[in-house]
């Protein structure tokens, strides 16, 4: 598997965030446009000042190529995992390697027991990442996500600290 490192986001990462969210598939998943340096800094700050979440820049050989995060950490020691990679880094195992590292961190450092994630059924690449990172499929949630006027079914996966 490819070697990735996780680190916090910082002001020097603005160009990497802007490049990632300039991709149409990434842009439509953002809550609001991330198309200016200010918007990129706001996105990073959002992840940097929360008690119920932690995001990491994913780097390969020092280059930022993606993001992994655990959010919505609740009183049941459960968190929601998300990930993305820049278009030029896809298909190399970056997201799976980063998600494995995130899970190890979440279980060890945050004391979480259960990690969940979901992917659109029409996104087999995201499903492959989840499975390679040790997340077992648990079922389909109908029409869970909405992007624009379109709704998408989502397959939920989970990984336990005891897996």
UniProtKB/TrEMBL annotation:
InterPro entries: Acyl_CoA_acyltransferase, GNAT_dom, Ribosomal_N-acetyltransferase
Domain N-acetyltransferase: 4-159
Any one Gene Ontology molecular-function term assigned to this protein's record: acyltransferase activity
Pfam families found in the cross-reference section: Acetyltransf_3
Keyword Ion transport: no
Organism: Planomonospora corallina
Enzyme class, first EC level, given as a word: transferase
Stated name of the protein: GNAT family N-acetyltransferase
Record PANTHER family: ACETYLTRANSFERASE, RIBOSOMAL-PROTEIN-SERINE ACETYLTRANSFERASE
PROSITE patterns documented for this protein: GNAT
Keywords for this protein: Acyltransferase, Transferase
Enzyme Commission number, as recorded: 2.3.-.-
């Amino acid at each position: 598997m490819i070697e990735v490192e996780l680190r916090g986001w910082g002001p020097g990462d603005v160009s990497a965030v802007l490049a990632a969210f300039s991709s149409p598939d990434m842009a439509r998943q953002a809550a609001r446009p991330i198309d200016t340096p200010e918007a990129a800094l706001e996105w990073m700050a959002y992840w940097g000042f929360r008690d119920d979440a932690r995001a990491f820049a994913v780097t390969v050989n020092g280059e930022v190529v993606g993001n992994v995060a655990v959010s919505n950490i609740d009183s049941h020691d459960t968190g929601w995992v998300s990930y993305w990679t820049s278009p030029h880094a896809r298909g190399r195992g970056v997201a799976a390697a980063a998600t494995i590292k995130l899970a190890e961190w979440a279980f060890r450092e945050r004391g979480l027991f259960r990690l969940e994630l979901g992917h659109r059924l029409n996104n087999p690449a995201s499903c492959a990442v989840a499975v390679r990172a040790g997340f077992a499929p648990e079922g389909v949630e109908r029409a869970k996500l909405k992007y624009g006027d379109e709704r998408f079914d989502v397959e939920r996966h989970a990984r336990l600290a005891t897996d």
